[in-house]
Design brief:
single chain; alpha+beta; four-stranded antiparallel β-sheet; 12% strand
C-alpha cells in the first residue's frame, strides 16, 4: 500500500498568498484554507511521526494539540517588532525534548515555506550558560564532536568573532567553539514535501542527526 502524501501543493500556495496579503481581513476570508491545507495536515503529520520519533529517542515529544504543542502558531508576536504583519508566512513544527521547559535542550524541527523546506536538529540560539556547556563538551571530547557531526551539515548561523574567554584560542575546533548555534540542517524541496513517503524521508533526516542530538543532550545534562 502506497503511503499517502503528508502535505499538498495547496499548503505552499496558501503560504505564498499569505505573504502577499498579510492582513487580518484576508486571513479571515481564507481561514478555511489555513485549516484544511496547513493546520490539519501538519497536526496529522505530528501524530503520524510520533512512533518514528520515539524510535529515535523516547525523550522527545510529538504533541498534536492545536495550541501549545509541536505546531508553531501562525500568529506573529509583533509587540517588540518593527514588522507589524500579523501572520507568519512559514509553517514550523518542533519536536521538543521532554525537559525543554526546564533547560535548553535539543529538538528536531521541520520548516515548510515556498522554496524553503528543511529538516533541522539540535539547539538554536541557546543562552550563554548552555552554549558554554556545549563548548566545554566539544573542547573536552573533540573526537566525539567530530564523530557526531561527520555525516551532517551544521547550520551556518551567526558566530562569535573570537573564541570565548576561557577556551583555548588555538584549539583545533576553534571555529566550532565560536558557534552561537549547534544545529544541523538538511534541505529538501517542495516536490519531496508533497510526495508520498515524505514522513519516512523526514525520519531518515532526523536519524542522521541523532548522533549530534545525543552529544548535545550529554552536554546539557539530559537523557537522549
Amino acid at each position: 500500500m502506497t503511503e499517502q502524501a503528508s502535505f499538498g501543493r495547496e499548503l505552499f500556495g496558501f503560504l505564498a498568498e499569505l505573504k502577499d496579503h498579510n492582513d487580518r481581513d484576508w486571513f479571515a476570508a481564507n481561514k478555511g484554507r489555513y485549516e484544511a491545507d496547513l493546520l490539519e495536515p501538519a497536526l496529522a503529520f505530528i501524530e503520524d511521526f510520533e512512533p518514528h520519533l520515539h524510535a529515535i529517542s523516547p525523550h522527545l515529544r510529538a504533541d498534536a494539540r492545536r495550541v501549545g504543542g509541536s505546531m508553531f502558531r501562525i500568529y506573529r508576536d509583533t509587540r517588540f517588532s518593527k514588522d507589524k504583519t500579523p501572520y507568519k508566512s512559514t509553517a514550523g513544527i518542533y519536536f521538543r525534548h521532554e525537559r525543554s521547559k526546564d533547560v535548553y535542550a535539543p529538538g528536531f524541527y521541520l520548516h515548510l515555506a515556498p522554496g524553503d523546506v528543511f529538516a533541522g536538529g539540535g539547539i538554536w540560539h541557546p543562552d550563554t550558560k548552555t552554549a558554554n556547556a556545549i563548548r566545554e563538551a566539544i573542547a573536552a571530547d573533540p573526537e566525539g564532536w567530530q564523530a557526531a557531526t561527520s555525516a551532517i551539515e551544521l547550520g551556518q548561523g551567526d558566530a562569535l568573532k573570537r573564541v570565548p574567554q576561557g577556551f583555548d584560542k588555538e584549539h583545533p575546533l576553534a571555529e566550532d567553539l565560536k558557534r552561537r548555534d549547534f544545529a544541523a540542517i538538511e534541505r529538501m524541496s517542495e516536490d519531496e514535501a508533497t510526495a508520498p513517503g515524505f514522513l519516512e524521508r523526514y525520519a531518515v533526516a532526523c536519524r542522521s542527526m541523532a548522533p549530534l542530538m545525543r552529544f548535545l543532550c550529554g552536554a546539557v545534562g539530559v537523557r537522549f
